[in-house]
Amino acid sequence: MSVAPPPTVPLDDRFARELAEMALPWPAEEAPDPRLLVLNEPLATDLGFDAAWLRSPDGLRLLVGNVVPGGATPVAQAYAGHQFGGFVPRLGDGRALLLGEITDTHGQLRDLALKGSGRTPFARGGDGLAAVGPMLREYVVSQAMHALGIPTTRSLAVVATGRRVRRETILPGAVLARVASSHLRVGSFQYARATGDVDLLRRLADHAISRHHPGAAEAERPALALFEAVVAAQASLVARWMLVGFVHGVMNTDNMTISGETIDYGPCAFLDAFDPATVYSSIDTGGRYAYGNQPAAAEWNLARLAEALLPLFSDDQEQAVALAVASLDGFRRQYDAAWSAGMRAKLGLPEGLAEAVVSPLADELLALLQADRVDLTSFFRLLGGAARGDAESARNLFLDLAGFDGWLARWRAAGPDADAMERVNPVYIPRNHLVEEALAAATRGDLDPLVRLLGAVTAPYDERPGLGRYAAPAPEDFGAYRTFCGT
Predict the structure, then answer these.
(1) Of 111, 127, 206, 254, which is the active-site residue?
(2) Is 124 left (phi over 0), alpha (psi -120 to 50) or beta?
(3) pLDDT over 90 percentage in the chain
(4) How far is CA 89 from each of CA 86, 128, 307, 308, rounded to the nearest angstrom?
(5) pTM of the predicted structure, to 2 decimals
(6) DSSP string of 139-186, one letter each residue
(7) Spatial separation of the C-alpha atoms in residues 297 and 288, rounded to whole Å
(8) Which tens digits make up the pLDDT trace of 179-191?
(9) Which whole number is the average pLDDT over 400-404?
């Protein structure tokens, strides 16, 4: 069925028109009883939607794909990907649809897509559906990441479908409406390269340049400039993940965006005790995407993007490889610079302080945090108090008191700024035990814990009375934490 949404929000089908080889027109499955669970009203307004209309029956049917606006062509996008190191040449949207592109109120083109809207020909045996819990996880964590200032895809709404989904048990089904600068991934370029169609690869690169990195169009080698822009965006993104203790969980090449936005909040989590070997994903048995491995995983993924783009770098294969290697070499340098700047800010250290002072302070601190399994978020927030002269709260997190006291004296001598620290060190993150509590309650039909959790994590730097449990680490009986991809 086709019906027009509010006239201020037309949906374009630019991706489907420009890259038809990578866009399979496909309808969403009918949702028998759509019911709104959560709506991101500020984002809806930013996109030009009337929130009241989105809550209406036609609005809900748009949010599950059962109402298709005029001019829109819902498609499942084709892409490839390295999954835990193994290449799969044809993955694609197995349970997702791109409804179309919206020009938001700031003039920016943004994708509106669905997740959990039913099987497509890319489903590879899956049911194409999603359960309430995993879709609300993506809503909560993407909201938190946005509030933390970390580039991310956004969640517009989660709508219960009235359909039951079979996983380990029978669960209520849901669809997530997701907004992104685009859904172009490293895997998109891998797919185009695997077809052997250089014209398709070039059109895809031009599309990505136009959407995300327009300055590359003026470069002598536009595709190489595109690659370098993606390297820079990903270096900055992963450094920000590391600084807040975010663990993505499944950094396959189909989960790395060209825009530099975080995408796919399946088996993701935030660190409690600081440990670079931390793995939360149930399927990452080898620790490939452990917290401490994320920078190397990103660099590996970018090497795969370079391989896909080689024909556009130069007609000479040897020169193309040399250009790719030289550009990829910039990742580690840019990541290190972004991480160091972020750590300097977290420690409240002045800009003029020599790196020869900052780096040893950071390295020694991380070793102390790891040795005593100190909660990362709590520590950095309490450290602001130490900058004001009250070090006991931070000190009490450590067993090695002599080691911490020695570090504290050297840090204080560097002149930290407590106010600056509180602007970058959050009080509230989506604590794993609180996320699980909220999702379990929502699955039973109780949304109150979810609403309270969202209230905390969407203003992460503002400490407020009555929210103490949202700032506290997991209780000891919470145990080892594992997350699942939701399929």
Answers:
(1) 254
(2) left
(3) 90
(4) 10, 19, 14, 12
(5) 0.95
(6) HHHHHHHHHTT--B-EEEEEEEEEEEEESSSEEEEEEEEEEES---BH
(7) 8
(8) 999 999 999 999 9
(9) 97
pLDDT, residue 1, reads 46
First and final C-alpha spacing in the chain: 28
Closest CA to 93 of 133, 126, 64, 122: 122
Please state the φ and ψ torsions of residue 66, each to the nearest 5 degrees. -90, -10
Q: What's the angle, vertex CA 175, arms to CA 8 and CA 269, rounded to 5?
A: 110
Contact status, residue 374 vs residue 366, Cβ threshold 8 Å: no
Alpha helix positions (H), 372-447: 376-387, 392-395, 401-413, 418-424, 432-443
CA–CA separation, 39 and 61 (whole Å): 14
**306 exposed, middle or buried (CB, 10 Å; 0-12, 13-18, 19+)?**
buried
Beta-carbon contacts of residue 5 (< 8 Å; ≥ 6 apart): 11, 49, 53, 58, 59, 62, 67, 69
Count the residues in the chain: 487
How is residue 96 written in tokens?
A: 């997702």
Cβ atoms of 157 and 54 closer than 8 Å:
yes
Active site residue 254: yes
Contact 65, 27 (CB under 8 A): yes
Q: Are 158 and 176 in contact (CB under 8 A)?
A: yes
Is residue 26 a contact partner of residue 13, using CB atoms and an 8 Å limit?
no
State how far the alpha carbon of 198 is from the alpha carbons of 145, 218, 221, 349, 470, in Å: 36, 21, 16, 49, 51
**In what helix (H) or strand (E) does residue 132 lie, and over which residues does it extend?**
helix 132-147
CA 293 vs CA 84, 287, 304, 367: distances in Å? 13, 8, 17, 16
Is residue 5 within 8 Å of 69, Cβ to Cβ? Answer: yes
Angle, CA of 235, 483 and 293, to the nearest 5° = 30
Task: Specify the pLDDT at position 7.
Answer: 46
Which residues are CB-contacts of 428 (< 8 A; sequence separation ≥ 6)?
456, 457, 459, 460, 467, 470, 471
- Report DSSP state, residue 65: T
**CA 188 to chain CA centroid, nearest Å:** 17
Per-residue pLDDT reduced to its tens digit, 244-267: 999 999 999 999 999 999 999 988
Lowest mean pLDDT among 159-168, 392-401, 415-424, 470-479: 470-479
Amino acid letter at 232? A
Which residue, chain included where needed, has tokens 């020695």? 406
Instruction: Say if residues 245 and 228 touch (Cβ distance below 8 Å).
Output: no
Candidates 183, 165, 162; CA nearest to 61 is: 162
